[in-house]
Design brief:
The complex is a heterodimer of chains A (117) and B (178). By secondary structure, chain A is an all-alpha fold. Helices cover 70% and strands 0% of the residues of chain A. Chain A has six helices and no strands. Chain A has helices at 7-17, 26-32, 42-63, 67-76, 80-104, 107-113. The longest helix of chain A is centred in the C-terminal third of the chain and has 25 residues, at 80-104. The two termini of chain A are 58 Å apart. With 178 residues, chain B is an all-alpha fold. In chain B, helix 6 (117-123) crosses helix 9 and helix 8 packs across helix 9. The longest helix of chain B has 24 residues, at 71-94. Classes of the chains: A mainly alpha (117), B mainly alpha (178). The interface between A and B is large, with 35 and 43 residues.
Chain lengths: 117, 178
């Protein structure tokens, strides 16, 4: 009876028998057939978001009928320590949201922390 | 420093960066085309058409890639689905089935003296065993990853790999020097 090779040798021979296939224009053909990019560049999206935020704030200020102005004046009368606490609290909330979204967009970090979103 | 697959995917997601996607294609084209050539039994033209379809689908659906598996595993899954859909279409059009395809590869018709005995022996395996052997033994996927690619139970993958390996060994031993 003829001898048979072991699993390890067979797997190694299979890997060696699979040749590297030269690109030979394949990638170019794939790229030529991709659908056109539809999304705007990142800077344009950032500018649109910033513009909308400024416009929205302006409209809200005008429609408030002086409420915002009076609120700012009242806020300036608050003690300095209270303003610092308020600013620190706002920073914490914004920072927490930034961390959560950064983790959601980074698979490596998400796997590391084993958080499910 | 060379960018990782994850970096390139992030660029595609952020800016639809087709150059970044091109780099991903360059990195994985050989393994995907190699897998499809095995599945189509070295029909190079068909395999390349399916590989192209695989990468186009990957680009269109890249937002569904959540990074839970390797990018190559995800590509293999798309490639396998493309192959299955194509096989189904061909069956509907001309009534070709796996048994008929199998009969075209009678071991007696293969010259044992050929340089690529192993690849010919691989082509003699039934599709389910050949696919499992190519993914696990040749492409280096774990049984678990192969089960996800093929969408079949883990135990079935293990059985197919085991049977495929045994048949390969027997075929090669039969072709070997007396």
């Amino acid at each position: 009876m003829k001898a048979m090779i072991d699993d390890e040798t067979l797997d190694r021979q299979l890997r060696e028998a699979a040749p590297y296939i030269d690109d030979d224009g394949f990638t170019t053909r794939v790229l030529a057939n991709l659908p056109a990019a539809q999304r705007q560049p990142r800077w344009l999206r950032a500018m649109i978001l910033l513009g909308l935020a400024i416009l929205g704030s302006g409209i809200a200020y005008v429609l408030s009928g002086g409420f915002v102005r009076e609120s700012v004046i009242q806020l300036s009368n608050f003690p300095i320590w209270l303003l610092l606490v308020f600013a620190f609290g706002c920073g914490l909330v914004v920072g927490a949201f930034a961390v959560i979204f950064a983790i959601r967009k980074t698979p490596d970090v998400r796997d590391l922390t084993r958080l499910e979103f | 420093m060379e960018l990782t697959d994850a970096d390139l995917i992030a660029r595609v997601l952020a800016d639809d960066d087709q150059h970044a996607f091109g780099e991903l294609v360059r990195r994985h084209q050989s393994s995907v085309r190699g897998l499809l050539r095995q599945l189509t039994r070295t029909d190079v033209s068909l395999a390349d058409d399916l590989a192209q379809e695989t990468f186009i689908r990957a680009y269109k659906n890249i937002r569904s890639f959540r990074g839970e598996a390797r990018f190559s595993t995800w590509l293999y899954r798309i490639a396998y689905n493309c192959f299955r859909e194509d096989t189904r279409k061909r069956k509907e059009l001309v009534g070709v089935d796996e048994a008929l395809l199998q009969s075209e590869y009678d071991p007696q018709t293969v010259d044992p003296g050929l340089r690529h005995d192993l690849m010919h022996a691989l082509n003699l395996l039934p599709l389910h065993e050949r696919t499992a052997v190519v993914l696990c033994c040749q492409s280096g996927l774990s049984h678990d990853e192969a089960a996800r690619v093929l969408d079949i139970p883990l135990g079935t993958v293990k059985t197919n790999v085991l049977r495929g390996r045994e048949k390969l060994k027997q075929t090669l031993a039969a072709w070997g020097p007396n």
